[in-house]
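USER:
Working in pairs, take the chain set out below, taking as long as you need, and write a paragraph about the fold.
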Amino acid sequence: MLKGLVISARKHLDLGTKNDEIMDITQEALSIKAYLTLRVLFNRWSLRSNNKVTEEALVIIGHLFFLIPPSKLKNQVNRLTRWLMTLMSAKVAPFYISQCIFQLIDALALSGCGGINLESQLGNIIGMLFKQLSETVEDSNHHSVQNHSLALKAFYILTKLYNDRVVTLIRENVESKDPAKIVSTIQIFTDVLQKVPQTEQLKNEVMHSVIIMIQEDLKPVQRALLNFIEMLIQHDYLAPPQGSIIINYVIKLSESDCSNEEDIQLTCSKILQMVTLPKLITLVCQPRNTLAFVPLSKMATKMALRARSLGQVPYLSSFHLRPTQFISPQKLLTHLVMFSLKPYREGEFGVSSLRLLYALHPITSLHPVINSNVGQLWMTEIPQMLQMLDDHTEKSLNQEEWEGRLLQAFLYKFFGFTLRTSRNIKMVQMMLSAILQTVHEELQEREELIREEPLNSISSSIRQRAMNFITNFRKLHPLTEVEERTELLQTCFQSVLCLPSTEDLQKEASSSQEAQATEDLLMETLQSLLRLMETLIVEMPSQIQYCLEHLNIWLNSQNDNERERAMWCAARILGFTAKWNNFGVEIKFSRLGCLVRLLAMRCQDPVDNICFLSSQAVYNLYRILLLQKQMQRKKQGLWEEEGKSEVYSANVFYNNTFEIAKAFAEYFTEMQLTHLVLTAMEGLTDSKATVSLAAAQLMSAVMKERGRDMIKIEEIVEGIVGRLNLQLEPNTQEETMRAMCLLAGNNTHRVVPMLLNKTLPWDRTNLALWKAFGTRRETTISVLQLLIGILEKLHSREESREMAFQPVAVTCALCEMLSGSLCQEAVQELYPRLLLAILHHLYWVIEQNVPQKMVVYNREEGPGHKSKPFDPTSCALEVVKLVFMAAAYEGVVVYANQHHCWDLLSSPKFYYIGIMDLTSGIVKNCEPAILHRILNLIRNILYSSNYHRRILARTFYAQLLWHRSVAQTVGQDFLGNLIKWTNEPNIIMKEVGLRGISNLALHPGQERDLVKISATSALGHMLHRVHKFKPGAITRREIYSFLVPLLLSIQDNNTEVVKACGGALTEWTKVIGWSSLTQTFQHTTLSDHIQVLEETCKYLVGTKKIQLVGEFLSQSFDFLTSPQSFLREAAINFIGLTIKRLTMKRIHEDDVELLQNAIGSLRNDPVESIQSLVTTTLKNLDEYLNPESISATRMSQLSNNIFKVTGMKTSERKKRLFKTVKQERDDDDNQKKNIWNWLRGPLNSLGNWHNRRVKTTPLIIGNSDK
């Protein structure tokens, strides 16, 4: 029934029904009921197991999403996500979960914004959707198909809402080793990318993911990946530089000897046919594509013939104008003819070459035919050669006859016709170059000789002679193609550097002479390799970095001898270049960062000689850069930097990664810096501890010198975090943390938000990073300033009720940063501002609807102990404590513990009371300078539009006045502000203002009478408030203590003071219930104060509460020592009028003696009238004590003795006035108790002011009963 009702309600809304009468309910009421229904389903139904009830509930809840107001739905996202994750663990049918997730996202998207909670839960939601996609799709099962479809739709909506973030989260699955996840990722990309805008950033992200999948090349992924690539090509994804990587991958899968399934090869063929013909033909002729030559040439032939059939020239010689993109027509002709020399290679090698040549006719023409002889040659010779191959087999074909026919009858004749008839000088030059290149085929044969030499021995000098031949030949005809140079270097490096070590070669020798000869031959071979490298450098000086980069694989080899030889080559070739001293042509090290990293990492190699060679190589590279810089300065007419070359040497760089980074820092571009860090990052996981440490040190040093110039910060951060998760070697881990700390210090606004956005609670790696941020003063200050700014910005205005997780994450970060011992100086610098920001955040947190048992932070408690979980509130409280500890104010924490501040601060109702008590602890334990810094911060927000800020600021303000130096601050209208607050309608503001006035009253100043009047009036207001709460016994006893100071203050000569005291006493009688005195106090004047005093004493004694009378008398004793004479006189009057009403003969002798001593203490008072009053009062006391004769007294004593001897009791026992009374129990509930405890502070302070007992002693604030 509920399901049908919800669906019907949705249909009405979907149809646009606006008439509430038709629906019999308003849309607003419908929304509220839908929300309540959702709450009932959660709170009353157990929906955590796999059953039909749960499935139906999922369907109902999915429809409810569209009826609930978006603001309320956003508040439920966190709870819904956790519930759906629980249901997945319970194995609920995937369809129902996918449908519910889709409906939730769809409903949120309709509001135009998914909300903060949805963004914070993206990781969890995408993780669930990936699991749904990994479910096997059964075509016969409708729910199975729908599950897959709904998950993809959800991804599409999420991508529209959070494009970059979702793409990043999807990409994370690409780097997993799980084929199922990768295939799901491809499906998502395929479905989503066709529906979202194709931005450059999106293309780069997707291409990066594709390249990762290509590098992994997992067999189960190939089919899906090829289909995805086909779609990418349709959206012009081959244009970026990475496009060639994709094409090479497709070519690899299409190779003729490939074992791939037929459908994969067909897909590859389909993809390659989407490439332009010039590009495809260029790929055909590349040496690395030899194995794919036959299928590629067939495709190219097919495309060329199709173009010809459409009347198009398939390949124009104008393409030679773009030699960097496409192969020139002349080189293409030569290549295809050379490929045909061995026609039966790979079965159809020669046939495919000739057919492609035939299809491209006329290959060198700007017009279909430029010379009839060339056209006839092309059209007659190629078909005849094809027929010749058809008529023979590899065994029956005469190779010499075939080569004569191919080269002499076709190639040379073709060139002859073209050269003779062409008038284009440039074309003639290109033809001659192609012929020359063909003649130099012997060079390739030399390279083949080097390749064929065994790698496990060096028994002949073939390698050496071959390299010498190539070196000499290069002087006559330099290599201009980078690919040719690359292939040559790789061949030589592979052949020489991979040879066994000298020791192993000598062991294989049969004699010492042979061993020595082998060693000499190895050295000569290395020298030949060096000469070849020098020759190549002289040809193209700018290519030195590429030459060195080809050594990378051997510089990182696990074999010591390979690393040593490679570094020897690097040091020598850099030394050769540095001594060259001819920098007319600038040598640009476009990848200087990678090169420095490559060499610097080996400066701490386990093999000492490699360290030495590395330092030599690094120094030579530095010399090259320095010489180039000096040359540039000279050209610009600038002074030469003196002494720069003497600063560094190879010895300085030896085993010193920090000095290397410092020396090269100024030469790096931003991109080079970034590449250095990204490549150094790879070395963090090196199996050799010294190398991994060197990588970390290099990162640290570079970030220290040039950290602000880094780019790709996000990639660097993710890379470092990923490697820290791998549990690096301890020293490397520590240095990497230091590098991250330096990076964060220099790029705070980019690094910190990334880490804050990690899902809570954080793992150990993320927690360790935040702790590291508290170890370096500059970083700590920078990060703390940003975190404070986040808290202040997010809480600067009245927030929505939706829980924002970034400020919560800030407190988690602070928990780690402040828990270390190295952040004290930074915290002290930012102490007041940081404290106020956290306390304001705490107020915000406790008013949020935080789910129960929400864990946002876990603290490790040491070995053998479980981690301690924190929710948002306890986490914020922990930060408050840590701020005090880090600022070296442990006493504040101790004070707060004693006064139960943390409990008060955790309650929205008693938060301001907790702030009041906490401020008391600050006043007691912090220097006056700190108090004034706090005052300067809060006075700017005393009248903030934000209620929370006002409460926090005013409470601090009021209680800071407890300290005399604050209260006496010049230029502050403290009293004016406090009086304003007492007049505000808000109860809390009234009480805060009254507390401030009571604190201000503690300190004498120029406005003493005004403060006295304000303080007394404040007491009256406070008593009026207390009366409404119906106080219990403990609070009433506290209130009793105000009678004496107020009663005595009536005798002040200031009529305004008398009036204020009368008003306060009037309220006092209402609280205590002495209604008979209400009228008396209400109309008190200065002239009738003795009469008021007498009536009060009469009523007091008439209450028959002897102990209460004793307490009042004891309280009055304190006024006998007052510096103000009218208070001393008033105290004597009070005592005299009270004992007058008592039957003193029934008072215990000890109490009488105490009274006599107290009154007698003023016999020598400097005021004569007081001396006279003391004499009279003592005389009256004697009369009250001795109304009968002395003899009667003695008889009474004798009678008492008789009673004592006989054991009989006297008829009347004397009473004690001054006796300690056991405290009564207050039966009020805890909330009222807290209120009385707080109110007692202001009441006591006002009383103490009247008593003049409090001078510089601190207030007692908090719950003294606990």
Remarks:
- DSSP finds 66 helices and two strands in the chain.
- Residues 512-539 form the longest helix (28 residues).
- The beta strands are 857-859, 868-870.
